Amino acid sequence: MKNRLEHLAIIMDGNGRWAQERGYNRTKGHEVGAEVVRDITQYCAKEPDIKSLTLYAFSTENWKRPKMEVNYLMKLLERYITKERDTYMAHGIKFETIGDISIFSSKLQKTLKETRELTKHNNNLTQILALNYGSRDEIVRAVKKVVSSGKEVDEESISKALDTPYSDIDLMIRTSGEQRLSNFLLWQLSYAELYFTPTLWPDFTTEELEQIIDDYKNRNRKFGGI
Ligand code: IPE
Ligand code: IPE
Ligand code: MG
Hints:
Strand order of the largest sheet: 3-4-2-1-5-6
Distance between the termini: 15 Å
Bound molecules: 3-methylbut-3-enyl trihydrogen diphosphate, magnesium ion
Low-confidence stretches: none
Mean pLDDT: 97
Number of strands: 6
């Protein structure tokens, strides 16, 4: 039997290299990358099996980048989400975030909150953007939540207290040839299938995604059994 793909996660990497290879500023790579986010999200919304798409957009470590690049990314995010609302509604996409967004400007937080509210009844696909997300930070926040509630610390209580209590990841793709997790969903990826492609994110297409999903569907997932 082929594997079902319900939850796909992607580390969208390689925007900077894509731009630099073409003699552009790195920010151009992020701009083109945002267009790819739109295509891939719409594709997933049309696939009946895929229920969740988690995208790594900004890590807790990305604050180390030059101020100019960080500022650009924040502005791009605000612009993207505002512009995307029509697409979310037209394609039945629910918008969610994971990560600690309390550090963002109040304007950006408001945009995120309003978009979550607006799209909360859509049910073709949930697009989850990981923003100021770090898996270690998420796990620490979750354990603190469990402890302060007085509940027993176990796998179930921690899972439920994470920013992502919805489901484990089935397939995780990282673009750009890097083969590491960079603090992404360490808990939720425990039994995910991993796929690393050399394609830089701005060059990633739905055709390549289809091929990767096909590869995934034919893998032998064992979960510790035989
Ligand atoms: C991924 O592309 C986007 C973010 C981390 C925001 P990069 O900006 O990391 O691109 P490279 O890895 O430098 O090419
Ligand atoms: C991971 O990519 C973060 C995102 C894609 C948002 P990075 O480019 O920041 O990761 P490293 O630094 O190469 O590990
Ligand atoms: Mg990178």
